[in-house]
Design a protein that fits this description.
Layout lengths: L1 E5 L4 E5 L3 H4 L2 E2 L8 E2 H7 L8 H18 L1 H6 L13 E2 L2 E2 H17 L1
Antiparallel strand pairs: 1-2, 3-4, 5-6
Helix pairs in contact: 3-5
Length: 113
């Protein structure tokens, strides 16, 4: 992430640290995984013009809405400690249930932004 400043005759780009230093995970529960702000920004093409605090709030609100929608799923798998523990097909190294959960949260958060 970088910030751009402009004066009458010049443009200055001020670096804002690397992704690893600044990345924050939000919205995790004991059962459902959290969400990387940087991964969300990259996956959903959310630029740095939207402040991190606004992105975090959108992700948390999206998690809360999605958890309400998925209450029957959590009840069905009450014997499991995490969504990743539920037997499911795996795609790109993660459970398809985790992929679908992340997609629901990301799409809801992006819509609210």
């Amino acid at each position: 992430m970088s910030y751009l400043t402009m004066s009458s005759n010049s443009v200055t780009i001020i670096p804002h640290g690397g992704a690893d230093e600044d990345d924050v995970t939000v919205g995790g529960t004991e059962f459902y995984p959290g969400h990387s702000v940087d991964h969300f920004r990259q996956a959903m093409r959310v630029g740095s013009t939207i402040p991190d605090d606004r992105v975090k709030t959108a992700l948390i609100d999206a998690v809360l809405k999605t958890l309400d929608d998925l209450k029957p799923l959590k009840d069905k798998y009450a014997d499991f400690t995490a969504l990743d523990d539920v037997a499911a097909d795996v795609m790109d190294g993660a459970s398809i249930l985790v992929h679908r959960y992340r997609a629901a949260v990301y799409n809801e958060a992006k819509a609210s932004l």
